[in-house]
User: Which sequence fits this backbone?
């Protein structure tokens, strides 16, 4: 499968715990995006990388959230001290250079109890 | 007011009907317009991609963009039960916001046999 891969698909965690999600983009895609989607809403932009550089972060991304993309390949999104309001689907997408067509992974569904 | 407005529906049509899905937007900087299809608990799947105003056809799907009215549409001809999903419009500007997508809320479509 050469699509965008996300792991895990589902995560249940207790409030206050830290969680980390991984995204493997389509090979050779130099742009990688993170979005968050809550029930009944469209995805909302969180942050994006061009190669290993994080170029923009949304105001939605509080200090408890951090994302990395070492070596410009896979990316991780960490949420510290999770809150119930963090429960959502976290989506990763990738695109190539000057092309705005972004391809999404299947998402990681986070439930904070 | 949201930058992108999309009627959430739900929309229910008989098999074979022509479906019209629409979005309006307020940000005149948007230049790239996309439609995604999302099945329940899955990531969004890119259906159509259009740059600036005009029409684009792909099989049973036609995308229209009217930048003067800030209005985009997706038409589905000969709709099938397998088209039942949530349809999301998405848009992107140029410059520093290039590639960062702003989504509508999504329209839930059901095509019944």
Assistant:
């Amino acid at each position: 499968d050469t699509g965008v891969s996300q792991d895990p698909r589902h995560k249940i965690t207790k409030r206050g715990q830290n969680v980390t999600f991984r995204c493997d983009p389509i090979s050779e895609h130099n742009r990688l995006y993170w979005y968050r989607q809550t029930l009944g809403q469209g995805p909302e932009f969180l942050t994006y990388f061009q190669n290993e550089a994080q170029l923009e972060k949304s105001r939605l991304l509080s200090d408890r959230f951090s994302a990395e993309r070492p070596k410009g390949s896979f990316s991780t999104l960490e949420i510290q001290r999770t809150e119930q309001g963090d429960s959502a689907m976290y989506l990763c997408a990738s695109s190539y250079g000057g092309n705005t067509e972004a391809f999404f992974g299947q998402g990681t569904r986070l439930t904070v109890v | 007011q949201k930058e992108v407005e999309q009627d959430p529906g739900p929309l229910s049509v008989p098999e074979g009907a022509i479906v019209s899905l629409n979005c309006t937007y307020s940000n005149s900087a948007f230049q790239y317009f996309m439609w995604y299809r999302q099945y329940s608990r899955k990531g969004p799947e890119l259906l159509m991609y259009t740059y600036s105003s005009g029409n684009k056809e792909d099989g049973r799907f036609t995308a229209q963009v009217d930048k003067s009215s800030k209005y985009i549409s997706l038409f589905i001809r000969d709709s099938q039960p397998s088209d039942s999903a949530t349809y999301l419009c998405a848009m992107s500007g140029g410059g520093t916001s290039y590639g960062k997508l702003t989504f509508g809320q999504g329209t839930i479509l059901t095509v019944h046999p």
Summary: Chain A touches chain B at residues 4, 6, 31, 33, 35, 40-45, 48, 56, 91, 93, 95, 100-107, 109 (CB under 8 Å).
